[in-house]
C-alpha cells in the first residue's frame, strides 16, 4: 500500500513513478524489554531499537528495517540498500550522512 501511495504522490508532482535517488538514515529509539529486538548503543547510551530508513527525495518511505540499537549503520546499510535496489530498479543513487 505504501508503494502505491508514494507512486501516486510522485505522479501528482509530474515525476517518474519509481525514484532514482533516495536518502538513508537511522534513528535510535528507547524501548522497554517487551518491545522485541533490542540492544545497547554505547555511543548514544540508548537501550532499545534502531530504525534504518530509506526515503525518496520528496519524502515517502521506501524501506524500513528495525534492529537492536547496537547495530551499526555501516554494517546494516549494504543489506538494506540491496533489498531496495531489488524492489526499485531505477533507484541507483543514495544520499547518506557520515554514519
TrEMBL record:
Pfam families attached to this UniProt entry: DDE_Tnp_1
InterPro entries documented for this protein: Transposase_11 (IPR002559)
GO biological-process terms attached to the record: DNA transposition
Domain Transposase IS4-like span(s) in chain numbering: 19-97
Example of a GO MF term: DNA binding
Top-rank lineage group of the source organism: Bacteria
Name assigned to this protein: Transposase IS4-like domain-containing protein
Organism (species): Paracoccus liaowanqingii
Amino acid at each position: 500500500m505504501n508503494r502505491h501511495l508514494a507512486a501516486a504522490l510522485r505522479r501528482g508532482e509530474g515525476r517518474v513513478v519509481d525514484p532514482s535517488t533516495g536518502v538513508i538514515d537511522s534513528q535510535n529509539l528507547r524501548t522497554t524489554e517487551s518491545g522485541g529486538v533490542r540492544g545497547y548503543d554505547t555511543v548514544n547510551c540508548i537501550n532499545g531499537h534502531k530504525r534504518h530508513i530509506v526515503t525518496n527525495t520528496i519524502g515517502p518511505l521506501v524501506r524500513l528495517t528495525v534492529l537492536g540499537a547496537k547495530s551499526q549503520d555501516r554494517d546494516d546499510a549494504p543489506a538494506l540498500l540491496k533489498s531496495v535496489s531489488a524492489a526499485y530498479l531505477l533507484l541507483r543513487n543514495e544520499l547518506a550522512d557520515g554514519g
